[in-house]
Amino acid sequence: MNNSLPDSTGHFGKYGGRFVPETLMSALFELETAYASIKSDERFQSQFNSLLKNYVGRPTPLYYAGRLSKKFGKGKIYLKREDLCHTGAHKINNTVGQILLAKQIGKSRIIAETGAGQHGVATATVAAMMGLECIVYMGTEDMQRQEINVTRMQLLGAEVRPVASGSGTLKDAINEALRDWVTNVRNTFYVIGSVVGPHPYPMMVRDFQSIIGKEAKQQILDIEGRLPSYLVACVGGGSNSIGLFYDFLDDAQVKIIGVEAAGHGIETGRHAATLTAGKPGALHGSFSYILQDEDGQIIPAHSISAGLDYPGVGPEHSYLKDSGRVQYVSVTDDEALKAGFELTRLEGILPALESSHALAYLETLMPNIKTDDIVILNLSGRGEKDLPTIVRSYTNV
Amino acid sequence: MKPMNNLSTRVNNVMSEKKKALSFFVTAGFPTLEITVPLVVELAKAGADVIELGIPFSDPVADGPIIQASSEIALRNGITLNKTLEMARQIRQQSDVPLVFMGYANPIFSMGLENFLSSCHAIGIDGVIIPDLPLEESEEYRMLAKQNNVSTIFLAAPTTSNERLKLLDEASTGFLYCVSVTGVTGERQQISIQAKEFLTRARTCVKNNPLFVGFGISTPEDAQQIAQYADGIIIGSALVKILQNAPLRQAVSDAVTFVKSIRKALAS
Predict the structure, then answer these.
(1) Which CATH architecture has domain B21-152+217-262?
(2) Is 0.90 topped by the overall pTM?
(3) The complex's ipTM?
(4) Cα(A151)–Cα(A184) distance, rounded to whole angstroms?
(5) For A106-165, how does the pLDDT look when each residue is reduced to its tens digit (9 = 90+)?
(6) Nearest-CB residue to B156 (from A18, A22, A166)
(7) Is A165 part of the contact surface with chain B (CB cutoff 8 Å)?
(8) Per-domain residue ranges of chain B
């Protein structure tokens, strides 16, 4: 039943849609048509699948985390290793798809926004591989905390444009990318990095990321011969989580949990838990839950993880929250840091701070599960990019 | 013809005198909360045919740096949608200038479309422009606006197809806001050939509404040049920049001087 959404106007129930300046509408129609045509285009699909296999390194392993499971005393935890993708996170699944599409419709200039820098790096990487001009908008605050990724993008030949307006984070980078797109719409393809933005982006990015869940489902059936009891993934904009969840939405016995960033704590107001503490509104092209004050102004988010530091969330997540299919919870900066550190010591895997949020929720989940329950957790990215932040916090953990 | 509300009547009156209509945008609460009401009243006296009162938003994606900065300052000054409505009420007590709100969807959604539009009606606001609410998302808005006799002004862009221009014309009342270039608000070196081509094309598709053109018009010369292709001119960033640069006590008089210079350029 969920496979029919969004509807033909780009809505997931009351969420989604297209809330953009008129100048962009023709580009969105063009994109929608082009995307519909490549869905059944064998040449495109075989090119896409071949790049996912030989360039991105798919399928990614589903790894049984034995020492982590043992710590909780019951249940089995499997990690979907998106951190092993080329460039270090799931982001590149989507980037490969969108840039192939950009080439197909003859757009020579690629723009993107980035928060943690993972989407920016993935976009710059694929643009380099395909020989396209690439400009990445990034908040000045994020440029500071993700310095390594800024250098990587520049090495890849991308131009990183600093965005100092607003809070200097992902939200402002998206604003500036949208302004660029409005200005250069005729020759420019905007590669959005998450399941946010106007229709058809939330659908298209979800479809490109849904490979995560498709693989995981096949893998767990091969290994365990049954479906998992729980899926757990972190939610910022929501692309890695929807990627894992999508193929399981119709499997009612699978409980699905999205973990948001509670920052310093929901009660402090300094958090990025949009679904937990926001309310519906229009931001960045779609209607969805957003963090806003009583006058409809956007409240800057806070998270130690740049990739989750966003006051909006994909419209499909808003729909899944209201329908009750997915349960959304949140963990704090400190809880995430601690869980990431623990995984590093128990399994020899240094996770991204984003993924560490999903890991931290295991502390709440695991004591309450049945002995033979299986949990699949999406390890969306690796933690090298976060080393300065992690090292700074190390003494406090 | 569709039934006319105030805005259509007044715009038509201006046009029947063979004058080009002149619309000016100001950000509510910029540079101070106190200045907005007297500023608008004086601009109307100086020759503005329509005033667009901008409702500040934290994330104005259709705006260039000048209006972005003015919105940020207005928000820091404590502007809210309720205060903006109150300013409009006070303006209406002193002036019958056609008054149009221009604001992004979210603050309006936050207040509630029905609440917002019935307030507009009660105050005597003539029309509303919501730059990030395209036709496809506008059904409820248009219905409630019609009930409240408030004009719905849609934007059209050089990337808008002929077929779509016709739909936008059907959905608009008062005037159709033609964006001169693909881009955000703000001054430009020159009004491009693109604008002339677009307006010529729009003229062949749009039958119900006068064409107002905005984005990038900043000098009397720009206004004169582009006015040949449109029924009305919209100036925003250039005026906001004058307010930004003037010492506070001189802001209103500098703005009035600017409006008069544009009016004069269009009269000659």
Answers:
(1) Alpha-Beta Barrel (3.20)
(2) yes
(3) 0.95
(4) 26
(5) 999 999 999 889 999 999 999 999 999 999 999 998 998 888 899 999 999 999 999 998
(6) A22
(7) yes
(8) 21-152+217-262
